[in-house]
Predict the structure.
Amino acid sequence: MSLFSQLLRRKFEPNGSPAELRKRVITEVSSAWPFVEEDEGLEAAALLADLATPVPGQRSALSPQPERPAQNRILRSWVEWLRRLSRQRPLVLLLSDLQWADEASLDFLEQALPLLKEHPVLVVLASRPDLEHQRPGWPAGIPAQRYELGPVP
């Protein structure tokens, strides 16, 4: 399961049925778009609902060999949703344990972050040092502050 599927599930309905989750994602995400852009909002919401409620046996748009146009549409939808939310109030996106994230999710995140740089979105990424060994220099080309923490006493 991708990092972004987990994020959507945790935000919208950690214990509900897939149908309830899908409905809630569509309702909440599409509400970030004004009425005059309702169709665009519903399309973005449906894409993110698909991501949150994957069908077993169906390839995800974030799988290692995705259909490129599908991945691009999901990326645009995700980023536009965060941009719209950040216009209402600044956002903090905390992603922890990234050493466990799949490669497709890390690639997706690396593509999404630069698209948010002009918006009031603080992204905090946390991982064990393993991630630096798995993907040296990740995320590439993104200005970041790095803090290494010692062991917890």
